[in-house]
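Retro notes
What went well: the complex prediction finally ran end to end.
Inputs used:
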Amino acid sequence: MTMTIGKLAQRAGVGIETIRFYERKGLIETPLRTASGYRQYSEAVVRRLQFIRRAKELGFTLNEIKELLSLKTSAGVTCASVKQKAEKKIADIDGKLRSLRRMKRALVDLTQTCNGDSSLDECPILNAMDEGGPLE
Amino acid sequence: MTMTIGKLAQRAGVGIETIRFYERKGLIETPLRTASGYRQYSEAVVRRLQFIRRAKELGFTLNEIKELLSLKTSAGVTCASVKQKAEKKIADIDGKLRSLRRMKRALVDLTQTCNGDSSLDECPILNAMDEGGPLE
DNA sequence: ATTGACTCTGTAGTAGGGTACTGGCTTTAG
DNA sequence: CTAAAGCCAGTACCCTACTACAGAGTCAAT
């Protein structure tokens, strides 16, 4: 019950090139080959690609996903280390959220002081960025 | 009262290479040169680099900053077009915020079902990513 | 047997925002 | 005067996550 790379790509919802790229990056194992050199994949690889897709949706980078996957095959590793990585990722996300909220507040303040009618010389937005407004 | 590129870099808090990079990108004007070819900068360029830094902090890309700067020197452009760009940027930021909040919610849910004591086979985080948990 | 779809390797390009290096001048401090 | 520090142009390289070829071999259907 093996499949070629095109079938795998279709099943997993990714591009063929992406699969070969993941192979080069070490995210999926080097597959068995047919006599003529075609890659042969099992169902398990479909699941692995879906795992990668989900982890990406959760904001993990490919390198982090590689770490998660290597945890799975390491001896003596418990679920706790996975949880720890997830918690670190939550902290990262919190940092990004804070930074974006700061940006947004500054921009909202600026657009509110701006009536849109001033000449460019008096534009509060440009001036605030020029002179150092409520930022930093 | 002109300065060389190193001094400018120091004053503006950016790297020398970054200044030359901005010059290539058209974010700062091509400066006058000394007889021996050294770039000569005025105070105005310090302010421009600070403008660029602030705008980056607000989440504008270099291309967007270039547009903002070109608005400043275009005739017949009012403050309204600047305000409009800022508002579009606010909408972009809202989109990113929504996406990050979704990620965080999913990760928090996962870490809460995980006691950290399970074996890896039973790790709720890995399983959720493997099998399709509360995502999508 | 031939056509068309599929796969192979290897290399290069994309965007964004820089950083690093090479080899050769110039300027400045001692 | 000399040595160190600073500058020049041009090019290559970093990261992320792919994507796009080119040219050649393979497989399935007709």
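What we learned: Residues 4-6, 16, 20, 36-39 of chain A lie near DNA strand C (CB under 10 Å from a C1').
What to try next: split runs per interface for comparison.
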